[in-house]
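Ticket opened by: R.M.
Priority: normal
Category: complex prediction / small molecule

The reporter submitted a protein together with zinc ion and asked that the result be attached to this ticket for the collaborator who will pick it up next week. Submitted input follows.
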Amino acid sequence: MGNSFEKFRKNDVYLIVILIVIGIAGLILMQAVKKQGGTVVVKVDGKVYKELKLSENQTVEIVNDKGNKNILEIKDGKVDMTYADCNNQVCVNHKKIMYNGETIICMPNDVIVEIHSDDDSNVDAVAR
Amino acid sequence: MKKVALYGMYVTLAFVFSYIEHVIMPVNGIPGIKLGLANVVVVTALYIHGVRTGMFVNIVRIILAGLLFGNLFGIIYSMAGGMTSFIVMVIMKKTDRFSIKGVSVTGGVMHNIAQIAVAAVMLKTKAVFSYLPVLIIAGTIMGVLVGVISSFVVPAVKKYENI
Ligand SMILES: [Zn+2]
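Result attached by the on-call engineer:
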């Protein structure tokens, strides 16, 4: 009876505050450990396709097994997906990346672009 | 017979919301991570008709939306997010310590966390976890919105069905 609008309960408020604090703390933490990456790792179908230097300006064409194409541009230490023949264009609309740990993902073409610090990429090279 | 019409209505509504979400850009370029508007319908079904109906609406919506404007990957993502979020919401509701808003906030956040986890496995990269803070905040805000809308919709639908 008379249950028109259920009010926020105390526990709801605690929950919301805790989640927002966790999120903001995560953002601050990530900002603190952020450092300029050294290597751009391109993975296609889960495997390393190419490793590029972030410091060298270049344009790279990425073609996967099915013949789908992406074009990646590295310019002034920033990485941008400038072209993709995928259906959602999420990767093309993604902002430019430059920091360690940042990624651009093209899900339809199974292309991942990751920025690694130079130390990480050595590990990758060994693992490969 | 009335039940069939009701289920149809819920699924249709959830489907329309899914479509709207499909048109809006996914957050941060990770496909599959959507705003969760369709959750209003799922939450409403859960609160009015219980776990079974809520689950039914959830599953049918995900499969329909996936078949019509997604692909298999999309369905896997949506299923992971939708199922995890639903199960956690059922548990939260059972505790009876939270209102519909607290329940839907948990659902929104769990939805995003589950999808990140699936993305990490499928893309074989842990780099996607860097999206987590943003997605926790986004999931919380969206969950509040869904909860507030649902808290109006639930009594309205209940009233309508009693007539
Ligand atoms: Zn793409």
